[in-house]
């Protein structure tokens, strides 16, 4: 063992031995019996939760050891601190329970391009809200969200709104062969109060998340289902044909009679870089049977040798193949894609 350098050879100098740093323990507190709550809103570092046992609403902060972005709407979390829900009190989220589902989206724009994040946790239904007019429907976006729903293990539902402004038959013809649950409604600012009985029945007893472009009627639907929600609604820009963002963050609302519906901000892109290419076909059930005629290992890309997709003999299937290949390309290229 080498002699410690004390800066002098004088034998009269005595140096006290240094205090060894005590190694950090790897043991972590056990929160298995801590009260549980479900997150219904995340807002600027504050987490709004509902206690599972008695329904008390509590505002909380997260423990320092939990990473940024690790808590989303729908999460079931372990709580400590002041759980009374009284004004100016804060609980503390110390642990996030394992999720049954996680709806993911990969950013395709700006410096965040390629960054995957969870939007909503523990939902079992994903409602794709699409207007048949104002803004014009974009089947490419519908296809992306369908893929995301299957990847997350959620049941997809297609809701076509504003059918008082245009005929939904073209969209119905495109997606009915997929054996999706499809609902139509006159949900729009112009329609006033809309009949939402059918979609309301489909949401009962489930945790459902609404996803779609801005201006398609998500917040209007929430206000019909939960009148006390008072979500801000907005129109569509007459020049661009795009909706104006009104919801700025996801928020969950309890439905009368059971169930939860989660409103999300309008999206213009829905990146799928986190989905493996072989899993993209799960959102195209009508193409899966066609793919069985492809040679083994076929990538299904344009120009692929003997790809059965090139033999699509009707206009509808050709459109579906084009949408699938566009998704496949955008997933690998990570270029911004406006569906």
**Fraction of residues in H or I helices:** 10-25%
Backbone CA Rg: 26 Å
Strand content: 15-25%
The low-confidence runs, each spanning 5 or more residues with pLDDT under 50, are: 237-245, 335-339
* Mean pLDDT over all positions: 85
What are the secondary-structure elements, in order, as H or E?
EEEEEEEEHEHEHEHEEHH
Quaternary status: single chain
| SS element count, helices | 6
The count of strands amounts to 13
Strand order of the largest sheet: 10-9-8-11-13-12
Report how far the terminal alpha carbons are from each other.
68 Å
Characterization of the model:
The protein is an alpha/beta fold. The chain has 6 helices and 13 strands. The protein has a 6-stranded mixed sheet. Strand 1 and strand 2 form a beta hairpin. Helix 1 packs across helix 6. It is flat, with a radius of gyration of 26 Å. Monomer. Associates with 30S ribosomal subunit, binds 16S rRNA. It is found in: Cytoplasm. Belongs to the TRAFAC class YlqF/YawG GTPase family. RsgA subfamily. GO terms for molecular function: hydrolase activity. It is an enzyme of class 3 (hydrolase).
Short description:
The protein is α/β, with parallel strands linked by helices. 18% of the residues lie in helices and 22% in strands. It starts with 35 loop residues before the first strand and ends in a 6-residue tail after the last helix.
Question: What features would you highlight for this structure?
Answer:
single chain, nucleotide-binding, ribosome biogenesis
List the helices and strands and how they pair.
Layout: E1 36-43, E2 46-51, E3 57-62, E4 76-81, E5 91-96, E6 102-106, E7 116-121, E8 125-131, H1 139-152, E9 155-161, H2 169-175, E10 181-184, H3 197-203, E11 207-211, H4 218-225, E12 251-254, E13 260-263, H5 285-291, H6 315-333
Parallel strand pairs: 3-5, 8-9, 8-11, 9-10, 11-13
Antiparallel strand pairs: 1-2, 1-4, 2-3, 4-5, 6-7, 12-13
Helix pairs in contact: 1-6
Domain EngC GTPase: 121-268
Protein name: Small ribosomal subunit biogenesis GTPase RsgA
Cofactor: Zn(2+)
